[in-house]
Amino acid sequence: MNVANLSASQDSLGPPERLHPLYLLTGLGQTIKGAWGLLAGGAVLASQGRWWLAILLVVGSAVFSLVSLFVRWLKLEYRVGAHELRIDSGWLSRTSRAIPFDRVTDVDLEQGPIHRLFGLARVKLETGASAGSKEEEGVLHTISLERAEALREHVRARKGIAPASAAAMVETESRPVFAMDTRRVLIAGLFNFSLAVIAGLFGITQTMGDALGFDPFERQFWIDLLAQSEPLQQLVLAHRIIAAVGGTLVLVVIGIGTGLFRTVLREHGFRLDRTETGFRRRRGLLTLTDVSIPVKRVQAAILATGPIRRTFGWRELKLQSLAQDGGQGDHVVAPLAREPEAADILASLDWPVAPPADTWRPVSRAFFTSFIGTLVPAALLTIVAIPFLGPVGLLWLAGAGLAIAMRWLDWKRARYALDRNTLYVERGWWRHRRNIVPRTRIQSIDLAESWWSRLFGICTLRLGIAGGGGFSDHHVPALPRAEAEALRAELLS
After folding, report:
1. 1-35 confidence digits (pLDDT tens)
2. What are the distances in angstroms from CA 136 to CA 28, 56, 90, 112, 233?
């Protein structure tokens, strides 16, 4: 850029603006999170009886965090221009970041409890450079809600998207594509119980249960708890397994309660609207998020369920997008929906939710037999060595039998279908996924095989799709080599 163009760019920028002064309050959470190591060190010193050092460390870290937060607010300025947003930040190391509006894919608004109380918002500008990256490309953490909405309309106008008329807004508000009432949010919470939380609590009770005075797997815990009930005390004393069953139930209840709590906080007031350029999703109880999902950035859809959800006819619909959603490229557009509701959402993209029933093709039986082949030698050795291994050998055999059963169930549900425009792939029993991939979104196709799969004459067809998160692995497993090559040629034709 020459000097004349640089000067013109500077002239096109508006006056410098700062974040709202309440950033000093809304930014405290992030600051404390960054100082958790020092706070943990203070807790360790306090447990060792060195209170003065602990107080000095905690107070010093608090003062340093507050001063750094104030300096960050004082030295951060942003300027809105006709064609770009300029963000200048830093004190010792100064950074000037220019974000051209023609590179912006989304302008998302987020409101935490303090933001909502004082009419503020957090603005995030998504760009192609931020897809798949955890780095915040363009974020204004705390500005007034009025200024945030004006900035979003300004960016949309510069991208050629006219602001919606009042009549169109009313029509959109009256007919969401998908919405969840309180009852459905609570049902979603029941399905979102966290096994990770249960495992974590089990580990804590086994390692720190005595120190915390909470170990529901010990009989003494229940004896103390049921001190007023003599018959229940005798039952716990007589049957050791009662304590184990009771402890398991306690952890399951806590896991379900955690899932309910997290789901209500995240999905309360869930609403999905169709806009001129894509979808608009709003949700949240304490933290309200307002996210735009441009249609042109959507790459694929994932319809997910499991054995319990499937029994009740529930699905979760995600859209894989180049734009980000909290650091992920999978946007949940229907956390708990019936398949016809998911079909309505996809119909607004002109995507079918499923192919004709008679077009599904199964994968090779070698998907199952090749897996058994890896376990049979070890299982035979374990059977021979059971007199020496004892309960450990029996436990391993039980685990191998469960793995074989799960693999068989997975094989029965693994299939694919291809129509004129879309590839469909279904996989999994416990975590069932139907991947819906338009041909035009496929960027690469690989055939992967190992020495073991070659013995069974099968390979895996892997699809390269831009964007996406952990659930966006698109592949067709266990295809005969000739069938995989024919499918690849058909996809590329």
Report:
1. 443 444 444 547 788 898 999 898 888 777 766 66
2. 18, 33, 15, 18, 56
